[in-house]
Amino acid sequence: MGMGRSKNGYRWQGCLLYCIVLVLLLVGTGCGGQEGLFFVTRVVDGDTIVVEINNRQETVRLIGVDTPETKKPNTPVEPYGPEATAFTKGIVEGKRVRLELDVQERDRYGRLLAYVYLPDGTFLNAELLRQGYARVLTIPPNVRYAEMFLALEREARENNRGLWGLELTPGTDTADAPSVTVTEPSDQTVSSGKALIKGNINKKGERIYHLPGGQYYDQTVADEWFVTEEEAQAAGYRRSQR
After folding, report:
1. Which residue of 14, 91, 186, 236 is surrounded by the most CB atoms within 10 Å?
2. Which listed residue (58, 61, 98, 130) is catalytic?
């Protein structure tokens, strides 16, 4: 019995030691200096990469951004998804990057959540938004750069960069039409089984919510999900006229 407890204790201590090493390597890192750089072994898609940390492969989900899906099971490739993946590959694959954590270290899938920088200071999360390869996806408590990200997305949208320049489905040229045609929310979208109302920020910056059965509901990408119309209105959205 004593030996069993000892082995379990060693395993527990080993796990604890790895967690401590990971935190020491990552917490507080930013875009300056040369220490704490990690090799990117693979790019999964525009907002997800794999890096080697302490001889282990860690999947890293970029904080605050959401690129169109290319690898989600049972989901078709979304418009501008391949372009976003190619952009991220060109920026970081096979290179060393710095990871900056926020309040929450991992998501429900066990992926490390991080802001990603190149040694020269290039901020990948920000560049995806600036060049129109991603939308803002703010999930508390990781909100360190939320305001900056919103400003970058607004700039890209106003200049029709990337996915913001995609043509809408014919006949959807009203202000109530969503800015991008996709069918599924992101894996990181905060929603529940009862949250069926889609809140969308269109190319003009207008906040409009869509109810199931509405003309634009199926083609609308949800920036936020709501259970009731009151919640949507309290968040600054108005009801779609169609």
Report:
1. 186
2. 61
Co-location of 156 and 177 in the same domain: no
Residues 21 and 138 in one domain: yes
Q: Could you tell me the residue range of the domain that residue 216 belongs to?
A: 168-242
CB 235 within 8 A of CB 207: yes
Last residue of a domain, one of 139, 163, 187: 163
Block means of pLDDT (10 residues each) for the chain, 242 residues, are: 52 55 49 69 96 96 93 80 96 97 94 97 98 92 94 94 73 42 36 67 83 78 81 84 74
Q: Kindly state whether residues 54 and 139 are assigned to the same domain.
A: yes
Question: Is 69 noted as a catalytic residue in this protein?
Answer: yes
Residue 226 and residue 145 share a domain: no
Known active-site residue 239 = no
pTM assigned to the model? 0.61
Q: Please indicate, yes or no, whether residues 196 and 139 belong to a single structural domain of this protein.
A: no
Query: Which is catalytic among the residues 69, 78, 153, 224?
Result: 69
Catalytic residue among 78, 98, 111, 135: 111
